[in-house]
Amino acid sequence: MVTSLDKMWDTIESNISTSKDKKASYFIPLQQFLFTFLSRCLLRADTSTSPEIEKSGHIMMDKWLALQLLPTISINILQPLEEIFLHSFTYPFWLIKSDYQKLENFVKTQAKDTVSRAQTEFQLTEEEAIHNLIFILGFNAFGGFSVFLPSLLTNLGDQKSKHEELRNEVRQILTQNENILSFEAVKQMELVNSFVYETLRLNPPVPSQFARARKDFELASHDAVFEVKKGELLCGYQPLVMRDSKIFENPEDFVYNRFTKENGGEELLKYLYWSNGPQSGPHGPSASNKQCAARDTVPLTAALLLAYLFQRYDDITISSGSITALQRAKL
């Protein structure tokens, strides 16, 4: 991850230095970072082996995602035109067939060990393995992070006054760990992790989840009980759940240290439902529920990204999706 982040921020620094207005958008470098990093993590595939994939793999994935998501989202054009022309039919595969086939070939040739494992351990065919890996890489991981990390960076820009405290924590912990940035070191950074959790509370990357009841049961809220019958369709809307004023004080405000021990963060994590389940507690991801399999990986990866920034820079200014100032840390 650090190797991929080095390349991302080197690119952003270069873009700022050559820009007339001395600012640079971080979105495209961020997506390139995500595609490279996640390909290595999930597929054990190196994007540098294919110049076209290294340069444009994230764009190919964006097109594939857009074609699937467009029928389900609102883009706020005049109704009923949006419903008629965007939400009333399935888009044809040929629109992205060429790009998808390139992604297939990348997985087939560069993720051979992972595909082979899927065949031997899980009895999938090669074709099934490739399609599943593309879906995990593109929809679950790349797509989710492409929504979440911009929210994280936006909040970081908005919380400029808290940078010094966050930076001090990062550097203090890293000093205790021989200045080696690792996931184990990041786990010790209470404020950094709280900042990530608060972003997930207010900006969950997947706002809605759906499921059908497997049996009759009673669903209890603070002051009422609802009877749910087997087979009924349920929807969970995360932004509403995690703004519950009976659980979270000042629920509409971004409170960067909300999830620290001092503020009862360990108890509050039981009500952090961004992953379609509690962030802490006995009910983690399993084959029998719909909780995100990356419940622990997502916040830890985001925390490492923040720690990296405060290790690399003495000052960073973010505004409207762009990096407007960077000051490298003094060695």
UniProtKB/TrEMBL annotation:
Record's keyword terms, sorted: Iron, Metal-binding
Keyword Iron tagged: yes
Metal-binding keyword on record: yes
Superkingdom in the source lineage: Eukaryota
InterPro entries for this protein: Cyt_P450 (IPR001128), Cyt_P450_E_grp-IV (IPR002403), Cyt_P450_sf (IPR036396)
This protein's name: Cytochrome P450
